[in-house]
Design brief:
It contains 3 helices and 6 strands, in the order αββαββββα. The chain has about 180 residues and is of the alpha+beta class. The protein has a single domain (about 1-165), classed as Nuclear Transport Factor 2, Chain: A. The protein has a 6-stranded mixed β-sheet, with helices on both faces. A hairpin with a 2-residue loop joins β1 and β2 (about 40). The chain starts with a helix and ends in a 15-residue tail after the last helix. About 30% of the residues are buried.
């Protein structure tokens, strides 16, 4: 339930008011964007805000949402779908993995890995697919073989980053209260 609610809120803000998406993160958060051979990393609120602003997404289509409870009462959320951007024509498929860390009032995004699945741009709108409704404590559903390795890599990278950051004592967190944004 938390994973699906988070995804609805996050992508609504990302698409309608991207200048506020950084409110889902904290100073201890890490964001990674992977596009082919190019990788960008941001690790503070201002850097995360700047990175998100450079994406210029004009439309987002969510295909699947899967989540499960993880380390230290956190939640791993894996989202797949397609995006349009002012930076390219057509739609590009992506996988995005979040690690939501608990805080006093809810969760914040501790780790976020956004990965374009391929360089291929499709020039037709992807067929609308309703997001999967899974109970958060269920394992991630099976995926096509070409994405399976990517999913495991992204999940392990998020969990590893969270453990490392927690281990070195970066526990300062901010809320991602965006309820005032409609």
């Amino acid at each position: 339930m938390v994973g699906s609610y988070f995804v609805q809120q996050y992508y609504q803000v990302l698409q309608q008011q991207p200048e506020f998406v950084h409110q889902f993160y904290a100073d201890s958060s890490t964001v990674v964007r992977v596009d082919g051979e190019s990788t960008e990393t941001a690790s503070a609120i201002f850097q995360i805000h700047t990175l998100i602003q450079t994406l210029h997404f004009s439309a987002i289509e969510i295909k699947t949402i899967n989540s499960l409870e993880s380390w230290n009462q956190g939640i791993v959320v894996v989202v797949s779908g397609s995006v349009r951007s002012k930076l390219f024509n057509g739609w590009r498929k992506f996988v995005q993995t979040f690690f939501l860390a608990p805080q006093e009032k809810g969760y914040f995004v501790m780790n976020d890995v956004f990965h374009f699945v391929s360089d291929e741009v499709t020039h037709h709108h992807p067929a609308p697919v309703a997001p999967e409704t899974k109970v958060d404590s269920q394992p991630i559903s099976s995926t096509p073989s070409e994405l399976l390795g990517t999913y495991f890599f992204l999940i392990l990278r998020c969990v590893r980053s969270c453990i490392i950051l927690s281990y070195i004592g970066l526990s300062k967190v901010l809320g991602f209260h965006v309820s005032h944004i409609s």
